[in-house]
Amino acid sequence: MRLLGKEEIENIAIGAALLGTGGGGDPYIGKLMALQAIEEYGPIRLISIDEVPDGALIVPSAMMGAPTVMVEKIPNGDEAEAAFKALENYIGQEIYATMPIEAGGVNSLLPLALAAKLGLPVIDADGMGRAFPELQMVTFYLNGISASPMVLADEKGNNLVMNTINNNWAERIARSATIDMGGSVMLAIYPMTKEEVKESAILESLTLEEQIGAAIRKAKEHEANPIDAVLQLLNGFELFKGKISDINRVTVDGFAKGQAKVQGLDAYTDQECMLHFQNEHLLATKGEETLCVTPDLIAVLDTDTGIPITTEGIRYGARCTVIGIPANEKWRTEKGLATVGPNYFGYEVPYVEVEKLQAKKELS
Length: 364
Hints:
Elements: E1 2-4, H1 6-19, H2 27-41, E2 44-47, E3 57-65, H3 67-70, H4 79-91, E4 95-100, H5 106-118, E5 122-123, E6 125-126, H6 139-142, E7 150-153, E8 159-162, H7 167-180, E9 184-188, H8 194-200, E10 202-203, H9 205-221, H10 226-234, E11 237-252, E12 255-264, E13 272-278, E14 280-286, E15 289-293, E16 297-302, E17 319-325, H11 334-340, H12 354-363
Parallel strand pairs: 2-5, 3-4
Antiparallel strand pairs: 1-2, 3-9, 6-10, 7-8, 7-9, 11-12, 11-17, 12-13, 13-14, 14-15, 16-17
């Protein structure tokens, strides 16, 4: 067990924005909520799964909805607590700890704020190792763990307890309810045992986010290239460098969907990269060439500062560097690719690991 204070939260917020691959909600808002919670309730206890007692109940906390909605509809802080209390009452067991459902954006920070407020420890793990847009797109699902019972809570005081026949129906019904509840809600979801988390989660992801943030900050302090520091830490690849020349973004069916065009600079002059996203960046192409595709991570970083740029934060003229990062091996399985691979999202491209795409590029 170790304590997370303000410096750790600052670093986690940067790392969460990067692993969020453009989605997961703006981590800035979650950072402010976590910092305020620490100010009011003290440091947050971060524990490993091995420190959890047998028989304890672990419940991830998360926000569901389009990231663009959160720009104007900020959580008031009570929704997550209401969701947890409703789930405890339904199950009849006290929740021992919480954890992020994904390693990305606001959903890495909101569980920390909730934990500080309720005095709960946070498990150093998540269910994606990145961010994905749908509820069944978690490694828990790959291991057959049910999202139900789950609770949706909004800022008006409504909460909805759901039991569904499978996790795909959980996504479908919860997405419809989220739209009716204003476009974003807080969730208490995937109640699990210690053994289930240990087997199915991606461990030490909060620590990795903290390391990413620290690497970027230290590189800037020593006038080194922060993007090089990130690539070295994550075994990543520079895919493209340029400036945003066009952005097409709409909020539809509870998602922020669109494309961003990057006009090449420096070594990429006279070239063009297209980014395709649904909350998160899912496909990066250069002409007919695939640079990186889901489930591998595509992140857009400010070229000068190395700070990640979210899909709702992309602006015309922004100078950026697009990087690719290998996904956790859990996503590269047959079931993983069926759940979050390019075909699921309607992209008619085969999945090829980013490292193989880069090796092929170097050979040519």
